[in-house]
Amino acid sequence: MNKNDRKAIALHKKLGGKMRTIPAVPVRNRADLALVYTPGVAAVSSLIAKDPRKAREYTMKGRTVAVISDGSAVLGLGNIGALGALPVMEGKCALFKTFADVDAIPLVLDTAPLKLRSASTQDEIDYIVQTVLAVAPAFGGINLEDIGAPKCFDIERRVIEALDIPVMHDDQHGTAVVVLAGLINALKVVRKRIESAQIVISGAGAAGFATAQLLRAAGARHIIVLDRKGIIDSSRSEPHKKELAKFTNRKKKRGGLREALAGADILLGVSGPELASAADIKLMAKESIVFAMANPTPEIMPDEAKKGGARVIGTGRSDFPNQINNSLAFPGIFRGALDHHVRKITTKHKLAAARAIASLVAKPTSTRVIPDMFDKRVAPAVAKVIR
After folding, report:
1. Cβ–Cβ contacts within 10 Å for residue 97, how many?
2. Which pLDDT tens digit goes with each residue over 129-156?
3. For residue 183, which phi and psi values (nearest 5 degrees)?
4. CB-side exposure of 15: number of CA atoms within 13 Å?
5. Is 177 a member of any domain?
6. Is the pLDDT of residue 56 over 90?
């Protein structure tokens, strides 16, 4: 355990968690009580019962997002369960409030009882979907978080189809938006075009799948995606990998990371620590771009990537230049969705968000292709285009 870990543990113990419930109006006397609660609140309840659309104006629904996880894919920690996920969901809510003044509430779902009775994955998916739909009336948006692939794809799709409020699995789409934003500027630095760039994505889970899809929508035509077995092709049986095979690996390459990287312009790591070396990066084209985003240990450390000849290097960490972090995207996306009564977050919204983030770096350099997490312009710029 390092010094920062010890400080984080001490802080959380001192605070007893990062979230508090604070009423928007004080309850100081009987007159206040009569308005905030009984008897006055009955009139508001009756009003909403007659016209449910008014819930956005008269309750927390119009300004609050639920951050929901089952704890099956938390950070780089894996399947650590609902309680293990709670500190991360609390942190996510703190970022919502800090960066976009969005009120957010963490909800962690315990699926352990299902496992104890040997329920199927489909039973687990059904349970999560039903639970999300059951709690949804109180919220103006749903941020799904740290739900493992491939079940996350079915869960998100079904929840989106069932609800008329914005739903986004941030591990997928927040990652994809920020990656695209960084690439827009990195490609300017190396004077290459996304349409002709050879892109390798290491990781075919939630983030890798969504990133490949969004890059394709942005004009990328030459994408290779890898998982633990190697380069993905049409022989794969998993539905989301079959979908990837339809538009990736056009040259029908076979093998692992080294074969994929030969002549590549871009490496995007959304998989695991220390998968690449300087020797691997040397296989890439000149003026290469490496975003190694595994946390806390990237697929390749920046000094190694630089040794291999990479021109632009990004990670998910705050102690290196070009931090590719979801907090640049999700607060503004939901802020805009709430403000503009957006019912579904579309590919068009994600592309617009990426371009808005990228536009805040006026003159990109190899060490600055993405705005800082604390740049106060980011969330308003993103919110403006989500409409």
Report:
1. 13
2. 999 999 999 999 999 999 998 999 999 9
3. -70, -35
4. 13
5. yes
6. yes
